[in-house]
Fold this protein.
Amino acid sequence: MSAGPEEKPDETSSRILIVGQHFWPEAFRVNDIADFFIEHGFEVDVLCGMPNYPQGTFFPGYSNFGPWKEVHNAINIFRVPEIPRKSNTSLRIFLNYISYPITSLFRVPKLAKNHYDHIFIYQLSPVMMSIAGIAIGKLSKTETTMYVLDPWPENPYSVISVHSRWLRWIAKRLSHFHYKNVDKLAVLTEKMYQHFLAITDLDVSRIAIIPQTSEQVYEIPVHDTSLHERFGGNFNILYAGNISPAQSFETILATAQELKQQGIRDVHWIIVGDGMSRSWLEDQVVSLGLSDSFTFEGHQPIEFIPKYTELADVLVGCLASSEFLDATIPAKVVSYLAAGKPIVLAMNGEVSSLINDTIQCGFVGPAENSSHLTQNLMRVYRLSPIERELLGNAAKKYHKDFLSREIILDRLLDFILH
């Protein structure tokens, strides 16, 4: 693999290396974090894989023959090969998970010579994607900060069943190795903070609770006439995001059936997104006789999402019941808050008190409980347009005051630097 010469460091500026499997043109929030660093005067390099998420095939112009080096928005991007997800089967995802950590290590010797001031690891699944960042930090004696979005090994257990005690022991040791070998951890909630304080030797000052934020594009509604012509006259329930087992679409399907059985005919579910469970979900919708109640819009560019949220009467989300899914505030929820619409969720944990009590911008019931989800959707269904607007305004105000891009990313940058 020939990547060409690495750029020489500019000794007069501060340099940050971001390490993670996913980056532009894939739609992950790390893209916005990198832009934020650039806006604040840093030089930014990114070590990532070849873009193929969520469809599982390489984006146009990319393959395992390159390009190995790109510049996007003044960000230097260094790519390595990976096995694409393709059909998103368990085997393909496993191969994808192990390929990037291995190939990323081939970049370590050169990048370790680039005199970075800070290394920022954006940790999604798998946790192994952080290994090159850890190695570069150790070799160059550069401080590493990991932003933990998917705690391992607990997070994959919400998607796949692993009963073998031996496999669980290996997964636990492997995961804890990565968390114990960074200098700082940024986590999403108090529950995550207490967990990582217990499993690492880090001082309390080296772990920070920093919730996710959303890109500013979510804050500005966009009226799309063609969408209103397609879906006008309905009570539109929007789901926007990844379609995977963790999102408990069984709960949504059961709720759709319950609403139909109650004779509620003007409800329409708009599903925007893609993922490993999309084909299964589409098949289930057909087999359950719900085709007239669902529209699948597929993966959409991030800048298109506001025209869907503007159209929606309510934004919906579910999670599987899991100890560590319960410990997170999903990124989807933060985007929903920014959009300023009523929110109805079937999730456990801290998100329940946030929506129901702190903000009072919607209704959250237990995870995997379709009866509560049905009841909560009907509560919004029966509200007047003005009452729905008041819920949405409460969501938007909370996001502006506490979760806006500038507030959260300023906190993240300050934690990395100090």
Confidence is low (pLDDT under 50) at residues 1-12. The chain has two domains: 15-209, 216-403. The domain at 216-403 is CATH 3.40.50.2000 (Rossmann fold).
